[in-house]
């Protein structure tokens, strides 16, 4: 794989990237209160006295939020710290009613782990391991709403106190593509685990992007942090712009300032927001209202036992046990919804055809990744919106498997299924689409094709055997795709012998 380099006026530069991903923990209640966390509620309707920082209110950790963070740590093979502690991170902002955020700086819940990525999905075996430094649990702040009044900003505290996992990578990424692959893979893992829904457009997963540049092989340069980038594509754009901006500054004789920046998705550029604070600026100290978290071995093992089969293990199983190609296995495991849909299709196909799952896996995976995905893309739909269920797909594949219809007719039936929502069997009956296995009808069609193409018959018999496919195609066309392909082939062989 060719290394990503920025070609400056004075030579090559290497980009160094680290991501701090904030993932909202899947939980019906907030980190330290019982207030609801549902997305899209009316402003300030999901705020407890604790979230609003009323005097005398004491936080109580939500066990489910801690459980989900531990499960996430186990999923990335990270160290789970049995002893961890909450700290207060002090800063003053209108949407932070306490005047501090409860976070974990010195003793996080989860220590070092790693995420394996494939930068090119067409080369899934070319992987790179990205280190994860830590996962700590913290509470989110509220939100300022600037579009509700001509001269004032309103404060919505619905998000205040919502549990976040901050997943901090090591500076191991060296290109926008690697950062995009890491963020995509991390999102996939979180969605498999069920610890975060990964809905970046709703703000439940967002990334702070740390970028610096250096001459290849030299020490790290000064980094900037671009805050709250909310899509994989925007993260890649922000890195590309910021790395090129830093190269221009350095080659112009300037210095990079350690600062916090914002990304503008409309222009694809970053702009300065404020100088970057260090830990001492936040005056961290242990939260006096919260005891340290102490996890038992039994709690950690329960978290481990609750995990589903994760994407890398699933992909490996699809390749080695089901015999799927690396590409198909990668496509089918990239999103948890796709994997679940495929497994329902697989189980139902095996049941209907009286075969093992490994016997029908290739037929099912090829149909899903090429046929169904193809028509859904044309309709602008995804698998979750598909009018065709896994059970209906399995019925269609069984009709092909037992010779009731041909593969080409199956495409027509699929289109009708999408249009009408009807079952494939009833469509085949109603439209008269069953394959013809009547040898007499096939022989008549073959005789007509051979008579109409006497010149090509002569060429075939003279040694131009590639014409056999032409005769098959013409016969199938004459029979409107309803001729049994095996019988058509056999009759043609006999007639041309």
Automatic annotation (TrEMBL):
Protein purpose: Allows the formation of correctly charged Asn-tRNA(Asn) or Gln-tRNA(Gln) through the transamidation of misacylated Asp-tRNA(Asn) or Glu-tRNA(Gln) in organisms which lack either or both of asparaginyl-tRNA or glutaminyl-tRNA synthetases. The reaction takes place in the presence of glutamine and ATP through an activated phospho-Asp-tRNA(Asn) or phospho-Glu-tRNA(Gln).
Protein name: Aspartyl/glutamyl-tRNA(Asn/Gln) amidotransferase subunit B
Pfam families assigned to the protein according to its UniProt record, in alphabetical order: GatB_N, GatB_Yqey
Keyword Protein biosynthesis: yes
Organism: Novosphingobium nitrogenifigens DSM 19370
Example of a GO MF term: glutaminyl-tRNA synthase (glutamine-hydrolyzing) activity
Keywords: ATP-binding, Ligase, Nucleotide-binding, Protein biosynthesis, Transferase
Top-level EC class as recorded in UniProt: ligase
Catalysed reactions listed for this entry: L-aspartyl-tRNA(Asn) + L-glutamine + ATP + H2O = L-asparaginyl-tRNA(Asn) + L-glutamate + ADP + phosphate + 2 H(+); L-glutamyl-tRNA(Gln) + L-glutamine + ATP + H2O = L-glutaminyl-tRNA(Gln) + L-glutamate + ADP + phosphate + H(+)
HAMAP family reported in the protein's UniProt record: GatB
Gene3D superfamilies for this protein: 1.10.10.410, GatB domain, N-terminal subdomain
GO biological process, one term: glutaminyl-tRNAGln biosynthesis via transamidation
Keyword Nuclease included in the entry's annotation: no
């Amino acid at each position: 794989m060719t290394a990503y380099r920025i070609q400056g006026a004075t030579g090559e530069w290497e980009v160094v990237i680290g991501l701090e991903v904030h993932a909202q923990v899947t939980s019906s209640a907030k980190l330290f209160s019982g207030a609801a966390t549902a997305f899209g509620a009316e402003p300030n309707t999901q705020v407890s006295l604790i979230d609003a920082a009323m005097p005398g209110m004491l936080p109580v950790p939500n066990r489910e939020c801690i459980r989900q963070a531990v499960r996430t740590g186990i999923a990335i093979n990270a160290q789970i710290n049995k002893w961890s502690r909450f700290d207060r991170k002090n800063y003053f902002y209108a949407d932070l009613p306490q005047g501090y955020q409860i976070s974990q700086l010195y003793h996080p819940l989860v220590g070092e782990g790693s995420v394996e990525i494939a930068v090119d999905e067409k080369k899934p075996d070319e992987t790179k391991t990205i280190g994860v430094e830590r996962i700590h649990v913290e509470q989110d702040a509220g939100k300022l709403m600037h579009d509700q009044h001509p001269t004032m900003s309103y404060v919505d505290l619905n998000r205040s106190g919502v549990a976040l996992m901050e997943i901090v990578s090591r500076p191991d990424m060296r290109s926008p593509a690697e950062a995009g692959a890491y963020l995509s893979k991390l999102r996939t893992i979180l969605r498999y685990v069920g610890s975060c829904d990964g809905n970046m457009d709703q703000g439940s997963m967002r990334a702070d992007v740390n970028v610096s540049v250096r001459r290849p092989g030299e020490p790290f340069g000064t980094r900037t942090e671009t805050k709250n980038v909310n899509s994989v594509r925007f993260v890649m754009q922000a890195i590309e712009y910021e790395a090129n901006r830093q190269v221009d500054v350095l080659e112009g004789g300037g210095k990079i300032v350690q600062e916090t920046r914002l990304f503008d998705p409309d222009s694809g550029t970053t702009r300065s927001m404020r100088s970057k604070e260090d830990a001492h600026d936040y005056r961290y100290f242990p939260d006096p209202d919260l005891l340290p978290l102490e996890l038992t071995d039994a709690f950690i093992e329960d978290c481990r036992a609750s995990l589903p089969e994760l994407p890398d293990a699933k992909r490996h199983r699809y390749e080695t046990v089901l015999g799927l190609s690396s590409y198909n296995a990668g496509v089918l495991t990239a999103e948890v919804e796709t994997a679940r849909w495929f497994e329902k299709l697989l189980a139902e196909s095996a049941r209907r055809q009286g075969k093992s799952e490994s016997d029908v896996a290739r037929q099912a995976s090829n149909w899903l990744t090429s046929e169904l995905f193809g028509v859904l893309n044309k309709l602008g739909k995804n698998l979750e919106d598909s009018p065709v269920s896994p059970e209906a797909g399995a019925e269609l594949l069984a009709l092909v498997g037992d010779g009731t219809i041909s593969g080409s007719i199956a495409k027509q039936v699929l289109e009708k299924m999408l249009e009408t929502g009807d079952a494939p069997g009833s469509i085949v009956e109603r439209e008269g689409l069953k394959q013809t296995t009547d040898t007499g009808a096939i022989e008549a069609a073959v005789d007509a094709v051979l008579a109409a193409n006497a010149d090509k018959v002569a060429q075939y018999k003279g040694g131009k055997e590639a014409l056999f496919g032409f005769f098959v195609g013409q016969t199938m066309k004459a029979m409107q795709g309803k001729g049994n392909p095996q019988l058509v082939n056999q009759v043609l062989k006999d007639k041309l012998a």
